[in-house]
Each structure stands twice: as structure tokens, then as C-alpha cells.
């Protein structure tokens, strides 16, 4: 038991946690934009998946950084489909999100088959791996150095985007409009806010962030694409932003918890723990987080209802 503990809880595990958290955090921030506009975007999974595919295909032909641009472009296409279907044709957000995920899964397998003759994985000569950032002498700083050293640019970007998201949400006119739309759409429209435009931008932002998340997922270590490689990370991102109520730092904290669970599952498997048991760890924590989030939302609704009743003297 002590041997397993020593293998799992190491400095290297902290580095893996950051690597695992980055794609979740990027996707969750994207989903938080739509959540703040009262749109639950469960299409994050599909947008991440096409982003991962485009990152490898484009990155292998050009270079990994162009691959990131390709990933963003591919995810934006799905985000545009989502926006048009929901905002222009008034389709249900949940139904369209499910459709986006199914479309992404089918299209990526089709393209794998057509382009490479293999429906499961890209060939060995199709590789794109993001370079790691060497911190030099800073890498020898206790705990922090080994944890941050040899991470990709997108890991750094993911965490730096949290304060950027906070600034946009609370310090810019667009953020004010987005929160107003999420709080009371009718009142926002009466105040002259273009609700459709605000929501449209939020959906496109979610697509861009998911594209970057897919690029990090595909090009951080493996450098290849496998069918269904997102493995429900988009849904975990939805759980994280729901648990964090779409707020920047709470969402980041939730993503760190899920990233830690994912890293723990990998380390347990390497330590010889039953792989099936280890792989269930992130999903068990996801369920617990969703239950806690539901209890928080219910408590908030009850408090709001009591406040409303008190205001009218009931």
C-alpha cells in the first residue's frame, strides 16, 4: 500500500495534473461564456473532438502552431452550426448539442477512413507534438519548478486565460451584457441589448476555446488522433463549469479537481491498480460534483424564492 502511495503522490503527478487540467479548463471557460448567457452548451465534447482531429492533420502537414489555428477553425465551424440552429432556427439547445457531438464523432471517423484508410487512429507518420517550455534554472525550484517545467504553451495559456475571462466578464461592456442576458433576457432586450448577438458571440467563443482544448489534448504528449479520444472530457468540462457556476476561479478550481482525478487514475493504473477501477475515478468525482452543484442551485432558488416572498410581505 505504501509503495502504491509513493508511486502515485509524486512531484511528477503534479505536472500531470496541470497537463490533464488544461484541456478541461479551456473547454470549461468556453462553456462558461455560453452558460453566463443562459445556454447550456453540451456540444463542447464534439467541438473538442474536431479540434483535436484538425490539430493533428494540419499540424502534421505544417507545424503544431498552425495546427492550433486549424483546430480553432474546425471547432468554430461546429460552433457556427450550433449558433445558427439554436438562435436562427430556434432549435432546442440540448438537442442541438447532442447532434453536434454525434456529428463530430461520425465526421472524424469518416475523415480518418477516407484520408488514411483507418477508422481508428492516424498513421504513425502523421504526428504533431507541441514543443515544451524549458524553464532553465527555474526548473530546479522546489515543487513549483518540476511542476511547471516542460509544459506546453497551451497549459500556460489555459491558466492565464482565467483572469482574462474574469476581466471580460466583469470589466467589459460585453461581459455586462452577457450577464444581463443570463439574468433576465426580457429585461436585457428591453434595455436595448442585442440578445441574439451577445449569445452568438458567446457560442463562437466557446467553439474557439474548445478548439484550443482539442489541440492541447491531441498534441501535448501523444501527437496523434484516435477516434473518440476526448473520452467524455467535454461533458466533464460541462460538469466543472456547472459546479463552478460559470465563475472564473470556481470553474478553474473544479477543473483542477477533475484534472487531479484523471491524473490519479493514470498513476494508479501505472502503479498496478486494476485499470477499470482507476479509470472510473474521474467519472465518480464528476457525478459527486454534479450532485453538489444541483444542491447548490436548489438552495439558491429556495433563497431567491424566500426573498421574493418576503419582499411582498408573504
UniProtKB/TrEMBL annotation:
One Pfam family it belongs to: BPD_transp_2
Membrane disposition: Multi-pass membrane protein
This protein's UniProt keywords: Cell membrane, Membrane, Transmembrane, Transmembrane helix
Source organism, top-level taxon: Bacteria
UniProt cross-references to InterPro entries, sorted A to Z: ABC_transp_permease
Name of this protein: ABC transporter permease
Compartments reported by the entry: Cell membrane
Tagged with keyword Membrane: yes
Transmembrane segments: 37-58, 65-87, 93-117, 153-170, 200-219, 276-297
Coiled-coil positions: none
Amino acid at each position: 500500500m505504501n509503495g502504491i502511495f509513493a508511486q502515485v503522490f509524486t512531484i511528477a503527478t503534479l505536472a500531470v495534473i496541470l497537463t490533464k487540467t488544461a484541456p478541461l479548463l479551456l473547454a470549461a471557460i468556453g462553456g462558461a461564456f455560453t452558460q453566463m448567457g443562459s445556454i447550456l452548451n453540451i456540444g463542447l465534447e464534439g467541438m473538442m473532438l474536431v479540434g483535436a482531429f484538425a490539430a493533428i492533420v494540419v499540424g502534421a502537414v505544417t507545424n503544431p502552431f498552425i495546427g492550433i489555428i486549424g483546430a480553432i477553425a474546425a471547432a468554430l465551424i461546429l460552433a457556427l452550426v450550433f449558433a445558427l440552429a439554436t438562435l436562427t432556427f430556434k432549435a432546442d439547445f440540448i438537442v442541438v448539442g447532442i447532434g453536434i457531438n454525434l456529428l463530430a464523432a461520425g465526421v472524424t471517423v469518416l475523415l480518418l477512413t477516407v484520408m488514411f484508410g483507418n477508422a481508428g487512429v492516424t498513421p504513425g507518420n502523421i504526428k504533431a507534438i507541441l514543443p515544451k517550455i524549458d524553464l532553465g534554472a527555474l526548473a530546479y525550484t522546489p515543487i513549483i519548478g518540476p511542476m511547471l517545467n516542460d509544459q506546453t504553451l497551451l497549459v500556460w495559456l489555459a491558466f492565464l486565460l482565467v483572469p482574462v475571462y474574469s476581466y471580460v466578464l466583469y470589466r467589459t461592456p460585453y461581459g455586462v451584457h452577457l450577464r444581463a442576458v443570463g439574468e433576465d433576457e426580457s429585461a436585457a432586450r428591453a434595455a436595448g441589448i442585442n440578445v441574439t448577438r451577445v449569445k452568438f458571440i458567446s457560442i463562437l467563443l466557446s467553439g474557439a476555446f474548445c478548439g484550443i482544448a482539442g489541440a492541447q489534448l491531441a498534441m501535448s504528449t501523444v501527437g496523434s488522433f484516435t477516434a473518440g479520444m476526448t473520452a467524455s472530457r467535454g461533458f466533464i468540462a460541462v460538469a466543472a463549469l456547472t459546479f463552478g457556476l460559470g465563475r472564473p476561479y470556481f470553474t478553474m478550481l473544479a477543473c483542477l479537481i477533475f484534472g487531479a482525478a484523471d491524473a490519479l487514475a493514470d498513476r494508479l493504473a501505472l502503479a498496478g491498480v486494476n485499470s477499470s477501477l482507476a479509470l472510473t475515478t474521474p467519472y465518480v468525482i464528476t457525478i459527486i460534483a454534479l450532485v453538489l452543484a444541483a444542491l447548490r442551485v436548489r438552495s439558491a432558488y429556495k433563497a431567491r424564492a424566500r426573498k421574493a416572498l418576503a419582499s411582498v410581505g408573504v
